[in-house]
Write a structure and sequence with these properties.
The protein has about 100 residues and is mainly alpha-helical. The protein has a single domain, classed as Nuclear Transport Factor 2, Chain: A (Roll). Helices cover about 60% and strands about 5% of the residues. It has 5 helices and 2 strands, in the order ααββααα. The chain has a two-stranded antiparallel ribbon. β1 and β2 form a beta hairpin. The two termini are about 30 Å apart.
Length: about 100
Amino acid sequence: MTAEEDAIVAEIEAFSTAWNKADAKLAASFFAEEGVRVGAMGDRQQGRAEIEAAFDQLLHGPFAGAPSVRGMEAYGCWRPIWRYGRAAWKSARKTTR
């Protein structure tokens, strides 16, 4: 993998660790201060405090004890998307300069 891909995997693994510890504050720290999270059911939170509260509800409610899966087999699905996204981003950067 490239250094960029290694960095992404490291972030995913760090988030998974926060999730597995049921640490809502740490999980929310992966979002920008004014970041937006849209849940699978369409619920929307804006800002780290709202995101932390949503994670706290999930991690101590319906997803209590549900582990985050880690390992290279879990990341295989994003590699083609990452490569496409990176190429599209580089292309967009060239046209906006």
